[in-house]
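Dear Dr. V.,

Thank you for agreeing to look over these. As mentioned in my earlier message, I'm a first-year student in the group and I'm still getting used to reading structure tokens, so any feedback on how I've presented them would be very welcome. I ran two proteins. I've put each sequence directly above its structure. The first is here:
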Amino acid sequence: MLLEVLQGTEAGGFILIQDSVNYCGRHLLKSCINAALKREEVVHVLGFEVSQEELNDGLDKTSAQRLHFHNAYSDPLGWTGNSPFTVHQFTLEDIGTLLKQTPQAKAVTLVIDSLSWILRHHDPAAICQKLQALKKGGVVRAVIGLLHSDLHQRGTVGSICHLATSVITVAPGTRGLGAFAKITRRTKSGKLMQDEEIFSINEDLTVTIQSKRSHPGSTPMNTDESEVDPTANLTFNLRLSDTQREAKEKLPLPFVFSKEKKSALLHPGTGSGRILYEPDANDDYDQEDPDDDLDV
């Protein structure tokens, strides 16, 4: 599933790469950029954490004219007053103006490196609204963002993940073999698909899937083996014979009314519903004080 997410960014999609201090997801982010460039897409990068030279290292050189880096790394907060892009310019109007400076024939893929820089200086609710508006289409075809999940509260991370159409959570692999990725993908119909894979990133930024990890509690299905009967080798019988099944089907259920009982309830006869009481000889009942026997 990881390769499917990297190779096919659908219109209106939002791919979120979620990493932590244990494993950096920037190489996987660069793999997404490289895959988009090979699909002949126009890519705009809002770079807050690395320089343009570091980001371009390993990317497809033949597609450099379709890659536009907006430098927010040298002065992300705008202290010098001449920064090309700052964290405070992360608005729909400023992003639209920035993209129009490099005219292109089709909508672009917007890469945010990283969302953590923006979330540290903006209200998370406002960022969610902007991301929701960006992924709807228009000038921006798709959004790819990197998020350092251990820098934010769980509620903030959950809100960003809820907006994403695909969430890739990366972690170091066991025994130094590759890296671990948990992929959650939401289809257009709203169905959630999850997978866990061990992957490695090659020098050309292509991704190789080494193995897939089965989900906890699930058992891989083996179609070559015969079906196992769970009722076999029991000390008691769970199956019914044909005679027993027929007798069970004919047995009237206590909550099912017969025709005679329905008729008696719907058409009561004479005297139905009356309460007849014959006092006992030892009953002490006073007409003037019917509550005489109560201790009140």
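The second protein is here, in the same arrangement:
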Amino acid sequence: MEDDIQEEVLSEFREKRLGGWQILQLTAATGLTVYAVWAGILMPGFRRVPLKLQVPYIPASKAQVSNVMTLMKGRSGGIADLGSGDGRIVLEACRRGFSPAVGYELNPWLVRLAHFHAWRAGHHSSVSYRREDLWKVDLSTYKNITVFLAPSVLSLLQKKLLAELPEDALIVAGRFPFPDWTASKVEGEGVDRAWAYQIQELRKCYESKDKHV
């Protein structure tokens, strides 16, 4: 039924020629919609962030979430998702037994959206979404970290993770790898790829480099 309706609407557009004024109206409406999404959902979290640290909101795909969780297989305890967006990574981690499952996100609208998804899934009391600056968060209690951030942010985040995480911590990055680190394991292909990094191996690598300097 829905396909028939869609085809009917498309047929009307094919048969009906739009005038200049109608095209202008359509273009303006589209522009206003895009601006409304930007101003209402994306922009509030960006105002407090330096330009080079701004990361546009791009939801993780099902394949990306699956690949991240595959790399986390066999692990337990608390997990923190840095730049958690709409909260889907945290929610899936909760379903797989990670506790506490915490997401850190600066954008208030995305935090609200994450809470809504958790409530709808029946896990609202089992997850935590916090509107906090990840650079000010103490990560020393987390053995599991997930990140979906831009390369410019990942390069700066490396130092914080090396300094704060416990020796047995595992970091999983989705969409983009850490620029200066070698992953211990990779899952998936193309844009759905995820990279796992063991903090103990990374520290040994840095110590070895320091000895040869």
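From my reading of the second output: DSSP finds seven helices and seven strands in the chain. Confidence is low (pLDDT under 50) at residues 1-6, 12-16, 23-54. Does that match how you would interpret it?

Kind regards,
E.
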